[in-house]
Design goal:
7-stranded antiparallel β-sheet; 212 residues; 17% helix; alpha+beta
């Protein structure tokens, strides 16, 4: 299985043709969500706690990173300090956290409903079936990857999102990651014309992703 540092750069570069747009995901069906612009610091703390082992000082051109625990401590990750927590939920079975970067991309982690003991081939099949049922196009699929302690399969997914005048195209990099404890879906959506310059920044985020 290839390490993320050997794969992510190639997969992320496939998103260069993405058109502008928002994020379409399972979170849109979750009514228990959190909006950063109307929340207090205490409320933020419900969805994100410090995880100092993954802190990292800035090393230009790479930003400063903050280690955090999300999804009620089930996931740890090192994220750029400039990210803003946009939406989140701790609803059992439907936990998620969604960040927005000033560099115009969204990073999200969703709790996947399959049990950790489910056969990998069945988990993959259910993810692909759900994507196709939502009329998403799997541009690239089942690319082997790994995070800190999980194996993963990477997908480049293109969706047509309804809009007032006409639908727009939304392209995302999605990682279905698992270990012996849990399964999560990681989603990265970029709104610009290219994400090639973000590869170095995102490598640390994905490479440090830990499932507890």
């Amino acid at each position: 299985m290839r390490r993320v540092s050997l794969v992510l750069a190639a997969v992320v570069s496939m998103l260069a043709s993405a058109c502008g747009g928002g994020i379409s995901s399972v979170a849109e069906k979750n009514k228990t969500f959190y909006a950063y612009d109307s929340a207090s610091t205490d409320l933020v703390d419900l969805f994100e706690q410090p995880y100092p082992p993954l802190d990292l000082r800035a090393e230009p051109p790479k930003p400063q990173y903050r280690g955090v625990s999300v999804l009620n401590g089930r996931v740890h990750v090192s994220r750029p300090t400039e990210w803003t927590l946009r939406k989140a939920s701790n609803e059992p079975g439907r936990r998620y956290v969604q960040y927005v970067s000033p560099k115009e991309y969204v990073f999200a982690v969703y709790e996947w409903p399959d049990h950790a003991d489910a056969p990998w081939r069945e988990v993959i099949a259910r993810y692909e079936d759900a994507a196709k049922e939502s009329r998403a196009e799997l541009v690239e699929q089942r690319i082997p990857m790994a995070t800190y302690n999980a194996q993963a399969r990477a997908y480049v997914v293109r969706r047509r999102v309804p809009a007032a005048k006409q639908p727009y195209v939304n392209t995302s990099l999605e990682l279905l990651a698992r270990n012996d404890r849990r399964i999560v879906l990681v989603q990265i959506v970029h709104q610009g014309e290219s994400v090639a310059e973000l590869t170095g920044e995102l490598l640390r985020v994905v490479d440090t992703l830990r499932l507890d």
